[in-house]
């Protein structure tokens, strides 16, 4: 493999591709990587004068070299910078409350890690000890309690619901008497996005703050972080 060809053609591909990109910061990054490849492959002397003539006699195989070079240079940049992003960037990028904040209006500012999570048997026990009703209501009528939600999970639930794989809207979630979601936020958001009705267990004696306290104190209730897919 001719490493100079890889660097040269890859660099040219990045420079030319960078001219089409927005915003300018991304354009500058791509073009800088391209020039690094170009000047690493050969002396800059006479390069610009010969660029046009080389372009006129470009061979099909050059596209392969360009692609390989672009992948090498792009991969090098990724490996060099993947650990330099501020902590939590990935979380912000998939947090529905950051990218679609209207779906989180009315939340109580509680992070997911402090929200109660029920499994099936614990839910049955909790409901047996607390007055509740079983209802089917518009998902858009509900408000969240937690202040973050994984949009990737929500999209997965929407897909499984619309494709008939698993219907998030018919598996009851737990809500308080003032229509705040206590457990099942991701199902609630998915069904709200789809503008569907959703099955709920409504606690008749607890407001949202009371419900959080009562549920977290109940034996067997768990707490899970942002990326744990369980509701």
Number of domains: 2
Strand order of the largest sheet: 1-5-3-4-2
CATH class call of the largest domain: Alpha Beta
Strand residue content = 5-15%
Instruction: Please tally the helical runs, counting DSSP H or I stretches of 4 or more residues.
Output: 10
Strand tally: 5
Give a brief description.
With 231 residues, the protein is α/β, with parallel strands linked by helices. The protein has helices at residues 3-18, 24-41, 47-56, 60-81, 89-94, 96-99, 120-129, 151-162, 185-193, 208-216, and strands at residues 132-138, 143-144, 173-175, 180-183, 197-203. It folds into two domains: 3-81; 96-216, Conserved hypothetical protein from pyrococcus furiosus pfu- 392566-001, ParB domain, CATH 3.90.1530.
Please tell me about this protein's structure.
- The chain has 231 residues and is α/β, with parallel strands linked by helices.
- It has two domains: 3-81; 96-216, Conserved hypothetical protein from pyrococcus furiosus pfu- 392566-001, ParB domain (Alpha-Beta Complex).
- 50% of the residues lie in helices and 10% in strands.
- It is built from ten helices and five strands.
- Strands 1-5-3-4-2 form a five-stranded mixed β-sheet.
- Helix 1 packs antiparallel against helix 2 and helix 8 (151-162) packs across helix 9.
- The radius of gyration is 27 Å and the shape is elongated.
- The two termini are 51 Å apart.
- The model is unreliable at 44-49 and 77-87 (pLDDT under 50).
